Backbone:
């Protein structure tokens, strides 16, 4: 059984990702704002690349919190609903299905003002390696 | 008419993104390897979050290279075909459609060994702001 | 303001689609079973093509029930969670976003046994023609 | 080894689907026009539901033509590029990946005038049942 923490990944440390809750298919992650995440100089909007990365990671942890092991992403869809403004991002991920070969997770991403800025749907391979 | 360069974005500078070609709906970008991109300590695989970010950005530039202005991402799909190994990533993006309200771009991502590691399909809003 | 009914479309009549509820971004549709919908002779599973069609239509009606006019589908994603068995299919669609240029709808599809057999996420162009 | 034909499915017979080519991961299918496929009475545009169904089926056959057995759809994405007008639809599907657990297919759909009206990307479970 893996321990659900985020610090084993250099990329997670690069962006400063925090895992705040993970149990039985539901996961919450936070990403505090950094100036490096700006879309453009002078903008207070997040770059979209941070948002899709966070969705992929949170969905993975939702499935892993059910299975007790990491899974590989098959594919993902991200819908950007509105600009994500400066402040801590919060990702809520939920396992929709954890089957013998495929898992599906839904992710909702809120910005520091509480607005839902993006939603994600991700498929993972659950076949043991 | 915008100048198609990548250095105006703090996030692009954070990851070290390079634009190597952009003309008439076709774009090539490169991302040199960094230890910060590792999926896990000790792994020589890229984290998936870098891959989805690169796909989103390259697709955006493909549409922008046709329109001469930036566009907002509506949604994107990423299919992970195989692990992306250490080495420079190359993204080739192509505008499939540039309509009055919607643009669609396809992106192919190769790792340092030349293997196609992921493909992306992205929709952008082309309605002038 | 359009009237939200389904009988204006020859394709809807071909498959026997019924609209059972539509108000303010939420829509319920039903599709009674027909032998023509079988995946294979002798199977009691729906063909996947019926399922993706129903998701696209229900999402469209969810956005239309907010806007009071029809909208064109930009793209859609369907996740097949389990086989849909013989019996009436029920689609519940909900507008997630109705913006100036883009609308997004989520759809949940249940089979005659009440199991969620597929989920859909669809983007529509809301720019007036 | 399955025989790649389309007539075993009542749904395929309902819509009049034809398989015109299938070999080694590449498939061509045709769907002759019927008045039942109209989006609305009086329109000469195909209903979108026919288009997503055709994309799902063609992608499945592309993977099956490599594996020699049917596969289950995990998920699919359809991008509608322009209205599909009256006339025979042609779907060209190509296996992008046929892995141990997942297969990915790309599909291009042309209408009777030769215009690409939609593109699809579909993931299938290749794990033997």
Residues:
């Amino acid at each position: 059984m893996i321990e659900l923490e985020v610090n084993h990944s250099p990329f997670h440390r690069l962006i400063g990702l925090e895992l705040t809750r993970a149990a039985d298919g539901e996961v919450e992650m936070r990403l505090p704002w950094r100036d490096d995440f700006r879309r453009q100089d002078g903008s207070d909007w997040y770059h979209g690349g941070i948002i899709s990365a966070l969705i992929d990671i949170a969905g993975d942890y939702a499935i892993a919190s059910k299975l007790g092991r990491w899974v590989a992403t098959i594919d993902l869809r991200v819908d950007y609903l509105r600009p994500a403004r400066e402040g801590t991002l919060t990702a809520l991920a939920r396992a929709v299905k954890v089957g013998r070969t495929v898992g599906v997770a839904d992710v909702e991403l809120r910005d520091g003002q509480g607005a839902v800025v993006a939603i994600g749907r991700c498929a993972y391979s659950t076949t043991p390696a």
User: Anything to note?
Assistant: Chain C touches chain B at residues 74-75, 77, 101-102, 104, 123, 125, 127 (CB under 8 Å).
